[in-house]
Specification:
Enzyme class: transferase
Keywords: Repeat, Transferase, Ubl conjugation pathway
Catalytic activity: S-ubiquitinyl-[E2 ubiquitin-conjugating enzyme]-L-cysteine + [acceptor protein]-L-lysine = [E2 ubiquitin-conjugating enzyme]-L-cysteine + N(6)-ubiquitinyl-[acceptor protein]-L-lysine
Pathway: Protein modification; protein ubiquitination
Radius of gyration: 29 Å
Number of helices: 34
Structural class: mainly alpha
Helix content: 55-70%
Number of strands: 3
Domain U-box: 243-317
Strand order of the largest sheet: 2-1-3
Oligomer: single chain
Length: 623
């Protein structure tokens, strides 16, 4: 036991030293980062006292210290990750990062709870300090860091508005610590490294990041023209002919790529070069010599955007797109897709080993996301039944790829029926219950897509989807909660599903979402409650949760759509219920309802007017 304790103490010392030696954080996570570093540093006296102690310790002490080691290791990894990588990506994913800080905080608090301090040979002063630190972790446990509202709003407006206010990017430049051309060059390199590390998979967020980076560069140049000119002059003196980064060169021609595409091994090539290689009859990847699973070429939009940004920053003429050199193969309907490549992927799905199936499902997922022609070709080739079979795969990543491929295919209206006829609904519901969080989110989105067809609403409800959707609504990520809510709303248009949702206990979680304006789910919660309130069981369940004070407050201060839904719910609750009418009257809702009946949406005006009429009737009875 002595050697085990000594090894643990040494590891804990290294971890705390590692946290203490981290540099100052200059990202949007600065506050969470600093709080965690400060609290971890305060654990140092405990470890120092234990190091000096010769007292033998029992298994319970060792187990507690091991839990602390594991939690501090997670803390160090999180803190390092926050200080590295793209600052823009970190801002876009701040909700997920906040959740990671919360999880680490809970892990450390749990570890400290498992250490029996009365069995440790430590001074009274150190014990008091550790109790204080433990109390700090307890207070922080379960409390998600409040988001920077201005930052969230600026990021949303920067992405959505046609011509965003330049002040938005000035504020973002300050908040993200991207104030100079040098800062932006480092950010550009961080984005480039990130893309290379994941093999160039063109996720949507990278397009947003590249757009924001360009806008921030324009902002910095506008604010600091002299500094920018100076830096550009230095660059020109130092690199009159800028060195092209190796990752921007085609491995075949060694020239700057104009139209980069990804092959099945994950390597990127200039389209015309790799197409010539394939047309010559080669079946391998030129760089790795691995056999290609298929010959489909996936555009690397992210790398293309980064090359354009690099060219702009270095005064290099932007490469002109030479167009695709691929031989387009036209099949039924003249679709622009590579049918031979798709058929090769289907062969892997049907007969390949688990690794090949996972890779093929992942490729189909990307191809189905890319364009409408691919969705038609993939379905016509017979992929849907094979993907449905993979929903039952024991490999979580394969399952994720399969359900997401079906989601992308379901965008095509004709494919919805094929998916349902292949028996997919029970398997999608099973993924929704038991899959990874990403798989569950995409299963919810798939069910929403399929439920657009009315008869599918019945089948999805009968398959037991609603309790699983409610669970995702409670425990999912922000995106998962929204996917679950949109699916529940659409399914509840069918009367039978309203009853299922109410009996599965949907009202309490909806009320919790309604009471948390900062959670971003108020719109969805009100919309679902409005549709449930039209059914007698839904109305009864909502009444039991005492919602009227919240509804009246929304009618006073909410958005136009939320005021409309709140008025609709209030009207349902007050119709035929004198007690609810009296509660509404006693809360002084008349003035807000009158204002809504004059200035709300058409539906809001009708509902508010109807509630006012009911209030007048109850007043007449009382008088």
């Amino acid at each position: 036991m002595g050697h085990q304790k000594e090894a643990l103490i040494n590891q804990l010392t290294e971890l705390i030293d590692g946290v203490s030696g981290l540099p100052e954080c200059r990202t949007v996570s600065k506050r969470m980062y600093s709080n965690l570093v400060r609290r971890v540093k305060l654990l140092s006296p405990l470890i120092e006292d234990l190091k000096d102690s010769d007292v033998e310790v029992g298994d319970d002490v060792v187990n507690g210290l091991e839990l602390l080691r594991l939690s501090l290791n997670s803390a160090l990894e999180l803190l390092k990750s926050v200080n590295e990588g793209s600052k823009i990506l970190q801002a876009l994913q701040i909700d997920n990062i906040s959740l990671r800080f919360l999880n680490v905080t809970e892990q450390i608090e749990d570890a400290l709870s498992h250490i029996p301090y009365n069995k440790l040979d430590i001074s009274e002063e150190v014990r008091e300090q550790i109790e204080l630190v433990h109390a700090q972790f307890k207070r922080a446990k379960g409390k998600m860091e409040s988001p920077d509202v201005q930052l969230v709003r600026d990021l949303a407006m920067a992405q959505r508005e046609q011509d965003p206010d330049p002040m938005i990017f000035k504020r973002l430049s300050e908040k993200l610590h991207l104030r100079t051309i040098n800062d932006l060059k480092k950010e550009s390199l961080a984005i480039h490294d990130m893309v290379i590390s994941i093999g160039g998979d063109p996720e949507d967020c990278f397009e947003i990041i590249a757009f924001l980076l360009r806008k921030l560069k324009d902002c910095v140049m506008t604010e600091n023209p002299e500094m920018d000119a100076l830096e550009c002059d230095k660059t020109l003196i130092k690199h009159r002919s800028p060195v092209i980064p190796d990752d921007f060169r085609c491995p075949i021609s060694l020239e700057l790529m104009k139209d980069p595409v990804i092959v099945s091994t994950g390597q990127t090539y200039e389209r015309s070069c790799i197409q010539k290689w394939l047309d010559a009859g080669h079946k391998t990847c030129p760089k790795t010599q691995q056999t290609l699973l298929h010959t489909a070429l996936t555009p690397n939009y992210v790398l293309k955007s980064l090359i354009a940004l690099w060219c702009e920053n270095n005064g290099v003429e932007l490469p002109k797109n030479q167009g695709t050199c691929r031989n387009k193969r036209s099949g039924a309907g003249g679709s622009d897709c590579d049918r031979a490549a798709i058929n090769a992927l289907l062969t892997k799905l049907a007969n390949g080993n688990p690794e090949q199936q996972r890779a093929a499902a992942g490729e189909l997922r990307l191809l189905a996301k890319r364009n409408a022609d691919n969705r038609v070709c993939i379905a016509e080739a017979g992929a849907i039944p094979l993907l449905v079979e993979l929903l039952s795969s024991s490999d979580s990543r394969t399952q994720e790829h399969a359900v997401t491929a079906l989601l992308n295919l379901s965008i095509n209206e004709g494919n919805k029926g094929t998916i349902v006829n292949a028996g997919a609904i029970p398997d999608i519901v099973d993924v929704l219950r038991n899959g990874s969080m990403e798989a569950r989110e995409n299963a919810a989105a798939t069910l929403f897509s399929l439920s657009v067809v009315d008869e599918n609403k019945v089948a999805i409800g009968a398959a037991g989807a609603i309790p699983a959707l409610i669970d995702l609504l409670c425990v999912g990520t922000p995106r998962g909660k929204k996917d679950a809510a949109t699916a529940i709303f659409n399914l509840s248009i069918y009367q039978g599903n309203k009853v299922r949702a109410v009996r599965a206990g949907i009202v309490p979680p909806l009320m919790r979402l309604l009471k948390d304006p900062g959670g971003g789910m108020m719109d969805e919660a009100l919309a679902i409650l409005a549709i449930l309130a039209s059914h007698q069981e839904g109305k009864a369940a909502i009444s039991q949760s005492e919602p009227i004070p919240i509804l009246v407050e929304v009618i006073r201060t909410g958005s136009p759509r939320n005021r409309e839904n709140a008025a609709a719910i209030l009207w349902s609750l007050c119709t035929g219920d004198v007690q609810n009418l009296k509660v509404t009257r006693d809360l002084g809702a008349d003035e807000a309802l009158k204002e809504l009946s004059e200035n709300g949406t058409d539906r809001a005006k009708r509902k508010a007017g109807s509630v006012l009429e009911l209030l007048q009737q109850v007043d007449a009875v009382d008088s």
